[in-house]
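User: Can you model how 2-deoxy-2-amino glucitol-6-phosphate sits in this protein?
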Amino acid sequence: MCGIFGVVGQEKNAAQKVLAGLKRLEYRGYDSWGIAVKKNNGLIRERHVGKIGGAVTKLPASTIGLGHTRWATHGGVTEGNAHPHFDCNQKLCLVHNGIVENFLELKAKLTGHKFLSQTDTEVALHLFESVGLMAGFKQVVGMNAFILLDSANDQLLAVKNGSPLIIGLGKNANYIASDVWALLDHTNQVIFLEDGQAVKITQAKVEVTEAKSGKIIKPKITTLNWQAEQSRLGKFHHYMEKEIYDQPKVLDNLSRLSPPAIKPSSKTFILGCGTASYAALFADYLFDLSGMDVEAVVGSEFQKYQQLLKPNQAMILFSQSGETIDVVEAVNLAKAKGLRIIGITNVLGSTLYRKSDQKILLGAGQEVAVASTKAFTAMLAVGLLLNKKPLQNVAASVRRLLDGPTRNQVKQLATKLKDREHIFVVGRGQDYPIALEAALKIKEVSYIHAEAYAAGEIKHGPIALIENGTPCLVFGNATNAAYEMKARGGLIIGIGYIPDKVFDNYFPVADLAEASAIPMIVIAQLLAYDLAVARGLNPDKPRNLAKSVTVK
Ligand code: AGP
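Assistant: Here's the modeled complex, given as structure tokens:
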């Protein structure tokens, strides 16, 4: 949530570099943005409401600057609430990711300051203005990352707790960002800052310290083997489309992995949020059927288990970003109780990655579109691998769907459904999480109300909503529910490997046993994408959403 980026270099193109960094980070929040640079011992900034799009900056030449792309938490979407914020004397400026939970208490004590916004960030800045960054940081409650530019120096100061901050070690310039993807245009040498650490960045030097004591720390430098090109749009219209088409390659790579093994434990919790929670639920079905004691929980509800946690248990977490706050908090709780942590994430060096005892990387490449697609199917694939289910033929079957007649058939269906208000989705067994994910994808990008049910539950109430022509997506072997909905006039769209006369539209996928879930969800991803496009929406940046949910 929110992207932050800073640079100190030799060349006087800081504003351009910050703008390019913010464009890379925009998927973290896109309601407003701003940049500030240092000029002649003063600060100059620009702030705007709305998406960055193809913006150019007219800020003056400078070697040092920082910027922010916002997903509003405190205060509406206005230019005045956009970052960077200035202190009373316009000598300090701050960008911030996270929430200052005690901002009202702090504000009450900050007498004599001029507050020009409704943000918690500005409160933090006035606090830093009064007592300094490190002393102020000790008073701040919450998961936060701050970058401060003082017009008196040619340096950036940053400090973090909870929210991610990564330092990029460049040639004649050093960088700092809330996301490693924003650094890849400049360097593959990075330092992942740990919680409670601070950093002073100049053009020539990066000095990491323990925030509390000021003790200098020798940081670990990580060399990434990722390419910025992985995230370019190429021939596709949107990142969501590109990422759907990336899937055969990702699945192919995963199918060559030797299946990771998990040490036995008395009980295993399996967690994720949103899309990742459905991947966790899918894996849970497979584990349960194999006789392992596994319980799927959504990240935000894990706290209720705190009295039940024991050191001989384990926790498996799925998270594309590895930064989702509800996931990180669940990990912190589980670690404190001695559980073994198995982290499955797409981002090397992310908080989940660093905190996990066993780390499994999805290898999906950067996912730019806010709605997750390739990371989800990679998670399903890892769930299958952990359960010793083969992935052979999965990549090929997805490739056939994308390159064959199915692609156009889905487009035609989207044209037919684009003005519908409701879509119902059902699945049974391990296809139920696939139905949940299909409904989420449709909601997220097309804003059509889509609701998923376990197939057997339809008759317990939701069937009251089925009218003549109501679209009903039926995954896999859920024909009883399909017949029940058909009898009430439902338009039955089957996605699976067993044809049935109940289907008004049928999208066949290869019979790959449990792995058929992957081609099935790809069809739903295409449908969600086509519905968004048919409704004139931008599927890459759905309203109100952000890619990485780092606030509670
Ligand atoms: C996916 O389409 C959503 N934007 C959302 O549900 C997402 O999956 C969720 O916020 C979890 O993110 P994570 O995988 O990065 O933890």
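A couple of observations from the model: Residues 273-276, 319-321, 324, 327, 370-372, 444, 545, 548-549 surround 2-deoxy-2-amino glucitol-6-phosphate (CB under 6 Å). The radius of gyration is 24 Å.
User: Helpful, thanks.
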